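I'm curious: can you give me some protein's one-letter sequence along with its backbone structure tokens because I've never seen that pairing?
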Amino acid sequence: MPRLLPERRNLIIIHCHDWMTYPAGIVAKNIARRLGKDAPLIVHVHATEIDRTAGNPNPFVYGIEKKGMKEADLIITVSNYTKDIVIRNYGIDPEKIHVVHNSIDYFEFESEKLIEDYPIKKYRKIVLFLGRMTIQKGPDHFLRVAKMVSEIEPDAIFVMGGSGDMFPYIVEEATRLGIGDRVLFTDFLSGDDLKRIYRIADVYVMTSVSEPFGITALEAIANGTPIIITKQSGVSEVIRNCLIADFWDIEMIANYIVAVLRYKELRNCLRNGALEEIRNFSWDIPARKCLSIYNDALSIYGK
């Protein structure tokens, strides 16, 4: 790090992540200035209130986000998709926004053998949803897709992993749609249980209404599972070997799922192509990009 960031005794770089830290960052910047120290403020946008509420933001949270972005010297967003939201919905100058895509450390998965001979895979085709049960993640859209697929693929079952404020509604909705016996709810998963559910699945489906990035899609790929994702996501900017649809296009997503379940050649093509794409993925890449942005912050205050 010292080779990348020149030594500046009076410099403090303040790097805040999402809205809950913005007020503290602004206060810290003001205190540092009163102490005679340069203190560029960088805010890192992992998600916005626009994402979390599907376009119906809480005015209090939105106000904090906007003030933090206005006060920031530089902004980091996790995708071009999020950058566009920040420009369009918060009125921020695009010149001070830098895009740093999220990643995974593929080497953590590479040494593990991908096993496909789980007993259940001999009898059932498994479609996986994994994420918070909130309006942002579109679990209700997934259920409507599941309803359509179940009418075409009688052997398909649908696994929904995660919890959230929509969970009671989603359980009831599965029953109302007549697929309560086809949907399995696992609650929050982590560690070996998370890897196992990825590997058991025939396809991972991300139905997010607004997804700043979507690391779960990369995790699914790393575990050997093909992915179907929405256009309204950051991960769609970094992966080509996947199927992409608008979150609202239930019919297209359902058709994609049926195609992946029925045609092994397609499933293997998506899986192997995506695995090749992420082979060189590492968190070192976004880390170095952030260090470069720190250097940009230094230039704001001169040498």
